[in-house]
Specification:
The protein has 300 residues and is of the alpha/beta class. It has helices at residues 5-8, 17-20, 26-29, 43-53, 73-82, 86-93, 97-102, 123-133, 153-160, 169-172, 186-196, 215-223, 237-240, 261-271, 290-298, and strands at 37-38, 57-62, 66-72, 117-118, 137-141, 147-152, 179-181, 200-205, 208-214, 275-280, 283-289. Helix 4 (43-53) crosses helix 12, helix 5 (73-82) packs across helix 6 and helix 9 (153-160) packs across helix 15.
């Protein structure tokens, strides 16, 4: 799949020295205090915390705030219907939505060797860590492995927004666009998110752009309890058959191939959107995400 050319060429991005020399320490721009969750918490508690705090993932902690693992929206999407973890819902809980959410601990879904970074590290080191491991969410820890903050791509874009870069959207956007019709099911959308490793899908009404759906939005659909109004027998598949249009969000801003990515970064910060469709002559020619903007600003 096309995209992130500067990372995939040789695995060693050529960071823009002019910008990275001026970057400070990670903890200065990380989100604080961190929103964490104990390792024995239920999946329902995790989805509720993501929904109420509008975050994309959670550091999993033990013994106070010591880092144990990381739970992402992608992990939850995988478990709730999008991937192989859904086997636990079908075999262990016979598709019962309430038992699968309330009786499964979050530690069952995570890797116990999470990628993290110390608070005293420089921001360019965090960027390199994200690039090399393909993550956009880093717990910020101290020498005792205590979680002091969380650093996301959004934090970095916010820090770097407003710069004129002389680089256009066309140079850094991903030309591979994965979408789903608004009449498609939530289940289909979740499978696509897991299959392609994307955090968002464009939603179409036949051949017209109708909006988007994100992993965080799907998790919040469960965490806000809105999903439960579609449950009649307790079977999670009743929720998974809901049309995408029920939970998608309309796009209220777009971008164009010739626009400077510094301007796009500023708009992302103002709107809270992590990705924008790229439109040329009324046709979608790609999508630009926070990750595209971030590496476009910092990589030469």
């Amino acid at each position: 799949m096309e995209g992130y050319r500067w990372i995939r060429s040789d695995g060693k991005p050529n960071w823009n020295q002019h910008i990275t020399d001026k970057l400070g320490e990670v903890l200065l721009i990380a989100s604080k205090p961190p929103i964490t969750i104990p390792k024995d918490s239920s999946i329902l508690e995790a989805t509720e915390k993501i929904a109420s705090n509008n975050v994309r993932g959670l550091p999993i902690v033990e013994s106070g705030e010591r880092l144990y693992g990381v739970l992402t929206g992608g992990d939850l999407i995988n478990y709730l219907g999008g991937g192989s973890l859904f086997d636990m819902v079908s075999k262990k809980f016979s598709f019962n939505i309430y038992e699968s959410l309330e009786k499964m601990p979050v530690e069952a879904l995570i890797y116990k060797s999470p990628i993290s970074i110390v608070g005293s590290a420089k921001i360019d080191e965090a960027l390199k860590t994200m690039a090399e491991h393909g993550v956009g969410f880093l717990p910020v820890i101290d020498k005792e492995n205590t979680v002091n903050g969380v650093l996301t791509e959004h934090d970095l874009v916010k820090y770097l927004a407003g710069k004129t870069t002389w680089r256009t959207v066309a140079e850094v956007m991903s030309r591979t666009v994965i979408g789903i019709d608004k009449r498609g099911s939530l289940w289909e959308a979740m499978k696509l998110i897991v299959k392609y490793g994307f955090r968002r899908l464009l939603v179409f009404d036949e051949d017209k752009l109708a909006g988007f759906i994100t992993a965080k939005g799907i998790v919040s659909f469960f965490g806000s309890h809105k999903a439960f109004k579609y449950v009649k027998t307790g079977d999670i598949r009743e929720v998974l058959r809901v049309h995408v249009s029920e939970i998608s969000t309309p796009y209220y801003t777009i971008t164009h191939p010739s626009e400077d990515i510094g301007e796009v970064a500023e708009r992302m910060v103002k709107t809270g959107l992590s990705g924008l469709p790229v439109i040329e002559e009324e046709s979608i020619v790609g999508i630009i995400t926070e990750r595209d903007v971030l590496y476009g600003l910092l990589v030469r």
